[in-house]
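**User:** My hope is that you can spare some time for a protein that puzzles me. I have put the entry right below:
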Amino acid sequence: MRFLALVLALALPASAQELKPWAGGATPPLELSDMKGARHRLADYRGKVVLVNFWATWCVPCRDEMPSIERLRASLDSRRFAVLAVNLAEPESRIQKFLDAVPLGFPVLLDRDAKIARAWQAKLLPATYIVGPDGSIRYRHLGELDWSKPEIRAQIARLMK
């Protein structure tokens, strides 16, 4: 899986650096605990646009894009927007070491058996989904993306209206 994440990040052309409309069917459920033990259900975020990012600390593109996701979250913080970062089956100590180096203002959820990632068709990392206020997946992006780019921010802001 590490190799696929790297190949995907290196193989994507510049034109692929945009959000693609989702055509993968209904939004799968998402209910996981965060690093502090609190449960998060996607259904609890209804009315907000939610960025769901599947990632791992061993995935270099995943680590590299986290600061831009945090910048996007901070720029939309006063609005109806949330970020849920879903870590794939790593020890909490490894995740915490990353979070100590790269502080994030959004919850990191623990997909201990990668069951949620499979349900969401997150076969390559990073895999990011934008869920609309109605709870339906609207966009997906595979590979690293600068989430703080104005055009990406504008696309997400349009969903919040």
In short: The radius of gyration is 14 Å. The beta strands are 20-21, 31-33, 39-41, 49-55, 81-88, 108-111, 127-131, 137-142. The chain has one domain: 2-7+41-159.
